[in-house]
Design a protein that fits this description.
Chains A, B, C, D: Keywords: Hydrolase, One-carbon metabolism, Purine biosynthesis. Chains A, B, C, D: Its EC number is 3.5.1.10. Chains A, B, C, D: This is Formyltetrahydrofolate deformylase. Chains A, B, C, D: Belongs to the PurU family. Four copies of one chain form a homotetramer. Chain A has 284 residues and is an alpha/beta fold. The first copy, chain A, folds into two domains: 80 residues, Alpha-Beta Plaits (2-Layer Sandwich), CATH 3.30.70.260; 193 residues, Formyl transferase, N-terminal domain (Rossmann fold, 3-Layer(aba) Sandwich), CATH 3.40.50. The first copy, chain A, is 33% helix and 30% strand. Chain A has eight helices and 13 strands. In chain A, the strands form three sheets. A seven-stranded mixed beta sheet of chain A has the order 7-6-5-8-9-10-11. Chain A has a four-stranded antiparallel beta sheet with strand order 2-3-1-4, covered by helices on one side. In chain A, strands 12-13 form a two-stranded antiparallel sheet. In chain A, strand 8, helix 6 and strand 9 form a beta-alpha-beta unit. In chain A, helix 3 packs parallel to helix 8. Chains in contact: A-B, A-C, A-D, B-C, B-D, C-D. The interface between A and D is medium-sized, with 13 and 13 residues.
Chain lengths: 284, 284, 284, 284
């Protein structure tokens, strides 16, 4: 579908006429809605929606859509954002020593499973430089110690600005990102190698093995100051048995990690994820 | 949620303004939409939607909703139906000798997993009469032979009319229902004990065993004249191995059959299934 | 298979010749092995095996098998037990107010999915008496309060002895069984309505909803003094989304609970579960 | 585990004493069994087993193991093969235009998920040469037309011999390999992009879309003269919905294909797959 589209993500207090008002705005300006999805959280009294329409034939010029919609959104007390499908987001992938998620995300981007640019890889280890170079991606090696963390986070932030990064993907980056950093750059997706909230923190596969679970999982979530506690975007699981050693859990887990992380990144880039409180609505 | 709702299921040729027109109709009459979901089949040029709103505070009396909406639907060339959540549908369950789906459906209805009455069980065998009686459901034993099939189908149809049945559930009814019968009473959900279109027809578990598959499945679909070829509502699968004999496949399959059939019945009763061509849209 | 079998479950320090010694014992006495499975836990230096052979044609009379095998087992420092397939175990099902696991276990026992007798249901509520009576099972109502727990556990223990119970199944029994009780009667399988170790303790579905997980699970495990921490026998999961309210999680969870509990009970009754440390080997 | 092992795969008519005889052979020569698994197909009267033991401390020199075991196997009428874990098998990967399985297999081999060499890629298209070269693997471009097929298969066979290939992996090779070729080189694993036996033949995703299935799958099997009918090694599935276009099925299917094919290749290389009739026993 080369026809560019606009997507509105809206959340506001539930009330009569919301669907009508939003749909009328698009119809009145000649837009053709191709996807519309909504959800009502009755307990929270919250209405959440995602509407996507074709820009061809839409009478409002792009730069006027936001101000025009704002006139509708403000009386509804709505939080909202608009995205255009032909604006290509820029991703920085952060890794440590493991390469499976890095390879996978690059392969998917090359295969156009999602539309984004990947101009930058940041790592606290030097060894994946060769992978980044293989695909002509800049690689910034920023080792982290107890003493230099603050300083390195300042450099990381500067890199994100210089490279005009929209999204950071922690693709098995085995360092804790500070709450301070996240406050400054909140668009961060992390993959945790367990079925959260089981095995929060370090060495989940070892602990899964010790607990003798029969299923392991992986969880992609937005990073928050509270470690492994951010809004969950996607999870998946795989069956294990007593025959699986820790190294088998690691191997099986890698297949989960790359698929779960890739799905979460794709959903995010297609503007299908709406966060409220510590939860996500995923408009699939 | 004891507040009764109305649900519109609509399919029509895709065009601008559909969401706006339908949402306006409900808003103009004071309705509060609680669920709205849509799908566009671009290849077929078809727009499909399900909209549910609360009847409390809706200004149109029930009997006027259909004619009023028809005035909107006709120029759009729309096929549509309306259902009210407090109209309790009546189900006839058809069985042969196996009781697992029968027990399961009755248990779920008692547990209010779906809202329906089950006044009638029809069978070509006498042995499940005791189950029906245990739950105070009428049991009609109509044995089928090559010679009496036409005659018995006439009786079955009469029973459905007498009992004011809205939906027939073939809960492991091991007889072929004629195309003629289905033409007269098309609201029939069947459970087939394979992952269709694999193993159409008789003895799917035996054939799955012979083929050496590593996963087996079950499929719930609307019955059509073409055996096991009707629109699929729901499917699920379970892993098997060389250790599983045919009888293990049958046992594992039963767990699938009852869950898949129950999900399909529930989705149908909640007016979440829209059939077009030989496909379904399931608005979950 | 009406031919009765004997099953040995053995664990011992790993060493050369174990398979040969055990297989020779059976072969020398004319036994025909129909299933043999083994597992080595290299970290623990432990060899675990399950061997099942036909008793027809076996030259040792039943009462001599245990002493004869003991002569082999003792020098190997082995822990072992022997079971005969035609010894029918007796189960007490413990419930509170929910009936889905109770119904399901009774149905499976009637359908011969596992071979056992169910002579007794114990509950801290009176309301499922009608279900037990429907299937001619004795129902003992033993309400639990803070003050009478010790006293009631004494009665429960007495009932288990009087009814010659081999296995207690906690089929959504919403009371904590004391460590003291478990020490006296350790053969207890519990179903926990979460994907352990996530959501240990009370109200797992509410907490899963609050955490915004995308998958929920159920866990069958042996009861231990440490709540929800016993050796896991079986787990399974189902996908949920933002559309699922807590009540949907409960409904979907029930389907998991009954299947996971039934699988665990069946595996236990077929002597396929070997516990060591806090882990299980499940010889499927 | 750097300690090399020997693995026996045996199938023979079921009879008393098989486990004892085989275990005694290994024990008598000082071997330490680390894995033993067996299966009896009662219908076929067939006993199948896989036994793996450490070579360190085994008294028979490697070249004498086969003749020595043959003396035991012949009276049992057994088919058997022996493999040594430190003999590194050589794989040729055959591809057409899609690169996902090729990338994935190479990545897994580099990550040591299985132990093998990949010296050769054969393709009927030139475009993946760049991938092979990236990893220093020879790439042979052999375009296939109606007229040159026989000739090209002769060249393919010659290449397999020159490169001393043990296993061919058809990693989305979209050409039919002739029965004649397979007769000459039977060690071929294929990935079919459907849940066989559903959608045998061409364009399974298009046909799955048309049929409106709710789950799609992938199947890894040994190639046989009868297309898509060979013994199944591994299958897996993923859920789809009406929202998924054919291109989404293709995308989701790719994730299945690479995981299912990789699992099958790994199981084969670890000598865990025993074929009999058109079925496999997979000793996991």
């Amino acid at each position: 579908m080369t026809n560019p589209t606009a997507t509105l993500l809206i959340s506001c207090p539930d009330q009569r006429g919301l669907v009508a008002k939003i749909a009328n705005f698009i119809y009145a300006n000649g837009g053709n809605i191709i996807h519309a999805d909504q959800h009502t959280d009755f307990a929270a009294g919250l209405f959440l929606t995602r509407i996507e329409w074709q820009l061809n034939g839409f009478n409002l010029p792009r730069e006027l859509i936001a101000p025009a919609f704002n006139a509708i959104a403000q009386p509804l007390n709505a939080k909202w954002e608009i995205r255009f499908s032909d604006t290509v987001p820029r991703i920085a992938i952060w890794v440590s020593r493991q390469d499976h998620c890095l390879f996978d995300l690059i392969w998917r981007q090359r295969a156009k499973e999602f539309i984004a640019e990947i101009p930058l890889v940041i790592s606290n280890h030097p060894n994946l430089k060769v992978v980044a170079e293989q695909f002509n991606i800049d690689y910034q090696y920023l080792p982290i110690t107890k003493d230099n963390k603050l300083e390195q986070e300042a450099k990381q932030l500067e890199l994100l600005q210089n490279y005009k990064i929209d999204l950071v993907v922690l693709a098995k980056y085995m360092q804790i990102v500070s709450g301070d950093f996240i406050a400054k750059f909140p668009q961060i997706i992390n993959i945790h190698h367990s079925f959260l909230p089981a095995f929060v923190g370090a060495n989940p596969y070892h602990r899964a093995f010790e607990r003798g679970v029969k299923i392991i999982g992986a969880t992609a979530h937005y990073a928050t100051a509270d470690l492994d506690a951010g809004p969950i975007i996607e999870q998946d699981v795989v069956r294990v048995s007593h025959r699986d050693e820790v190294e088998d859990l690691v191997r099986k887990g890698k297949d989960l990690e790359r698929v779960v992380l890739a799905r979460a990144v794709r959903l995010h880039l297609q503007n299908r994820v709406l966060v409220y409180g510590n939860r996500t609505v995923v408009f699939e």
